[in-house]
C-alpha cells in the first residue's frame, strides 16, 4: 500500500446513498449545461467531479443545496427530493450541508473569531459565550490555526483563508461537505496540505463529500471515486487508477 493510499481509503458505507441525482437538466437560455446528470454519493464517501471549464461541475453542487433551480430531474438528499421542498424544508436540509466556496467567503470586516462565532450563534442560539469560545478554539485546532483566532482575513495567506473557511463550515458539524475548487490559487505544498486536511475531516467527522477540482493531485489524494462530466452528462466513472488507464483518449487526457 502506498503512502497516499494509507492517507486515503477511509471506510465508506456503499449501501447508503446520501445524495442521489437523477436525470438533472439545467440550461441558461439556449445553453444546455446539464443534459441528464445521474450520480450517487454514498455515506462517508469522497466523490471527485472533474470536467473542462464550463462543463457544469459547480452548477451541479449549487443545485444540490438549492442555490440554483433546475429545469428537470430529481435531487435526493438524505432521501428527500429537495426540488419539491419549500424554503423552510430546504433550510432544514441546508443546515446539514457545508459548502466551501472557492474564495472561502469570509466576512472581511470580522476577525477569525467573529467569523466563526457569527456562523455558530446564528444556528445555536442557546450557547453561552464560553461554549461559543470553546467550540471556536476546538474547530480552529482541528484545522491547525488556533493562533489565527484574532487575525483579520486580510492578514491571512491563501492557504490560511481556505482553512478558516473550512473551519467555519465545520463548526456546524455538517454531514455533507461540498468543496468548490478547494486548492485553486494555492502553491503545490499548500494544495497538498488542504487535500490532506479534507481526508482528515472525512475520517474524523465521517463526512460525505463532493469535491470539484481541476487539481489532479488533489483528485488522486482525496477521491474514493471520480466522475468526469462531458457534454452535460457523466462520461466516465471509476477510481483514479482505473480512469488513468482508460481506453478513452479524452478521459486519459486529464491524467497527462
Automatic annotation (TrEMBL):
Residue ranges constituting the ABC transporter domain according to the UniProt record: 19-256
Domain of life: Bacteria
This protein's UniProt keywords: ATP-binding, Nucleotide-binding, Transport
Molecular function terms, GO-annotated: ATP binding; ATP hydrolysis activity
Gene3D superfamilies: P-loop containing nucleotide triphosphate hydrolases
Listed name of the protein: Phospholipid/cholesterol/gamma-HCH transport system ATP-binding protein
